[in-house]
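Quick one:
INPUT:
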């Protein structure tokens, strides 16, 4: 993560995406994180018939980015549902 976070709280976050199975889906799911210089701590995906369920988790990300990433994930072609869960505050950046 970059050092330009300011004094924003860092929280644990988990995103669950259900989408139509397609070859480029996983790379498209990672794009909203990459463009914000965020590296996921966990990426898990399973195929469920004609759908894929992907889970992306970060131990610490800026609180203000959680809804932005969730919104970007929801705009991906083929996405059926996005769930974003914020965890505990990891620390307040100084």
């Amino acid at each position: 993560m970059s050092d330009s976070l300011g004094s924003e709280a860092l929280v644990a976050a988990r995103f669950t995406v259900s989408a139509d199975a397609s070859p480029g889906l996983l790379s498209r799911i990672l794009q909203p994180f990459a463009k914000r210089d965020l590296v996921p701590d966990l990426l898990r995906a399973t195929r469920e018939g004609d759908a894929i369920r992907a889970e992306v988790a970060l131990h610490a990300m800026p609180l203000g980015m959680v809804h932005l990433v969730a919104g970007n994930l929801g705009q991906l072609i083929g996405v059926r549902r996005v769930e974003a869960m914020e965890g505990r505050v990891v620390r307040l950046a100084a």
